[in-house]
TrEMBL record:
Coiled-coil intervals: none
Pathway: Protein modification; protein glycosylation
Membrane-related topology note: Single-pass type II membrane protein
Matching Pfam families: Glyco_transf_43
Location relative to the cell: Golgi apparatus membrane; Membrane
Location of the region described as Disordered in the Swiss-Prot/TrEMBL record: 50-79
Entry annotated with the keyword Transport: no
Cofactor: Mn(2+)
Catalysis: reaction(s): 3-O-(beta-D-galactosyl-(1->3)-beta-D-galactosyl-(1->4)-beta-D-xylosyl)-L-seryl-[protein] + UDP-alpha-D-glucuronate = 3-O-(beta-D-GlcA-(1->3)-beta-D-Gal-(1->3)-beta-D-Gal-(1->4)-beta-D-Xyl)-L-seryl-[protein] + UDP + H(+)
Record-given protein name: Galactosylgalactosylxylosylprotein 3-beta-glucuronosyltransferase
Originating species: Microtus ochrogaster (Prairie vole)
Length: 324
C-alpha cells in the first residue's frame, strides 16, 4: 500500500512541478533576449521599439508597473510625438566619431527619427554602413553645397537642412500629420537626454539656453511671466532671434502649415540663419520657454578640434585599409 502511494506520488510530482512553473510565468513580461546586441538593425527595432520613453521617471515607471500587477491597463498609452532630428554632416577625419557620439545619445531616446543629410553628391559608403548598424529609425539624404557657397564666412548646411524639411513635408503631404517635433541637431554638439523630454511637448516653437556659444558660457532667452522678452547673448544682440540652431524646436504641424519656410542663401549671413528661418514661422511673443523658464543648459555648442594628421604622409601606409 505504502509503496503504491509512493510510486503514484513520484509519477505525479513532475506534473505538479510543471503546473507550478506555468503558473509562475508572467505573460506580460517580455522574454529575455538570448543574445546581447549592442547594435540592432533598424528593421528589427522599428519606430520606438522597446526602448523606454524618457518622459517617465523610473519612480513613475515602478508605480505604473506595480499598478499593472493588480489590474490590467485600461487603454493603450497615447502615442509619443515623434522627434525628427535633422543632422547635416560632411566628410572629414572626425565624421564617424561625431556620428557615433550622436547615435549613442539618440539611441536612448524613444520615438526619434534621425534625418541625416550628407553634404555630398552621392551617399557615402561610410555613412550608409554606419546607419545600417546604428539601430535607429532613419532617413539618409544627400545634397552637395554648391562650390561657391563653401566659404568660411558663409552660412553652413543651408541646402542640407532644406533637404530635410522637404523630406518631412513630402512624407506627410497625404496624411493628417501625426504629432511630431523637429529640431536641428548638428553633428558636433552635445545633447543631454533631458533636452528631448523638454522639446517633446513643443506646441508651436519652443526655445531653451545653449551652452558654450556666442563667445560666452551660454546664451539664453530672457523670460518674464512665462514669455520670452529678450536675449542674453554675447554677439549681435540685434538679431531678431538671438539663438543658436541648437536652441529651438518646431512642431511638425507648424512646418507643414508653413510650406514655404526654408533656409535662405540670398542675403543670409552666418549667425542669421536661425533668425531668418524663425521669422517665417513665429514671433518672439509666441515662443514657448523650456528648461525651467530657460534657466538650464541642456545642450552645448561643442566644436571638435581639428585633428592632427601631420604624421600620415611621413610613414608607409598600412597594408590594410581601415575605416576611421
Ligand atoms: C554654427 C551653428 O551652430 C550652426 O548651426 C550653423 O549652421 C553654423 O554656425 C553656420 O555658420 O552656418 P558651427 O559650429 O560654426 O555652427 O558650424 P559647424 O558645426 O561646422 O556646421 C554646422 C553643421 O553643418 C554641422 O552638422 C556640420 O556637419 C554641417 N556642415 C558643415 C556641412 O554639412 N557642410 C559643411 O561644409 C560644413
Ligand atoms: Mn558646430
Amino acid at each position: 500500500m505504502k509503496s503504491a502511494l509512493c510510486s503514484r506520488f513520484f509519477i505525479l510530482l513532475p506534473w505538479i512541478l510543471i503546473v507550478i512553473i506555468m503558473l509562475d510565468v508572467d505573460p506580460r513580461r517580455p522574454a529575455p533576449q538570448l543574445t546581447s546586441r549592442p547594435y540592432f538593425s533598424p528593421h528589427t527595432v522599428g519606430c520606438g521599439g522597446s526602448r523606454v520613453p524618457l518622459r517617465r521617471s523610473s519612480l513613475g515607471r515602478d508605480a505604473a508597473e506595480k499598478r499593472n500587477e493588480s489590474r490590467p491597463p485600461l487603454q493603450p498609452e497615447p502615442r509619443l510625438p515623434t522627434i525628427y532630428a535633422i543632422t547635416p554632416t560632411y566628410s572629414r577625419p572626425v565624421q564617424k566619431a561625431e556620428l557615433t557620439r550622436l547615435a549613442n545619445t539618440f539611441r536612448q531616446v524613444a520615438q526619434l527619427h534621425w534625418i541625416l543629410v550628407e553634404d555630398r553628391a552621392t551617399r557615402s559608403e561610410l555613412v550608409s554602413s554606419f546607419l545600417e548598424r546604428a539601430g535607429l529609425p532613419n532617413t539618409h539624404l544627400h545634397v552637395p553645397t554648391p562650390r561657391r557657397y563653401k566659404r568660411p564666412w558663409l552660412p553652413r548646411a543651408t541646402e542640407q537642412r532644406n533637404a530635410g524639411l522637404a523630406w518631412l513635408r513630402q512624407r506627410h503631404q497625404h496624411q493628417s500629420a501625426q504629432p511630431g517635433v523637429l529640431f536641428f541637431a548638428d553633428d558636433d554638439n552635445t545633447y543631454s537626454l533631458e533636452l528631448f523630454q523638454e522639446m517633446r511637448t513643443t506646441r508651436k516653437v519652443s526655445v531653451w539656453p545653449v551652452g558654450l556659444v556666442g563667445g560666452r558660457r551660454y546664451e539664453r532667452p530672457l523670460v518674464k511671466n512665462g514669455k520670452v522678452v529678450g536675449w542674453y547673448t554675447g554677439w549681435r544682440e540685434d538679431r531678431p532671434f538671438a539663438i543658436d540652431m541648437a536652441g529651438f524646436a518646431v512642431s511638425l504641424q507648424v512646418i507643414l502649415s508653413n510650406p514655404k519656410a526654408v533656409f535662405k542663401r540670398r542675403g543670409s549671413q552666418p549667425g542669421m540663419q536661425e533668425s531668418d528661418f524663425l521669422k517665417q514661422i513665429t514671433t518672439v511673443e509666441e515662443l514657448e520657454p523650456k528648461a525651467s523658464n530657460c534657466t538650464k543648459v541642456l545642450v552645448w555648442h561643442t566644436r571638435t578640434e581639428k585633428v592632427n594628421l601631420a604624421n600620415e604622409p611621413k610613414y608607409h601606409l598600412d597594408t590594410v585599409n581601415i575605416e576611421v
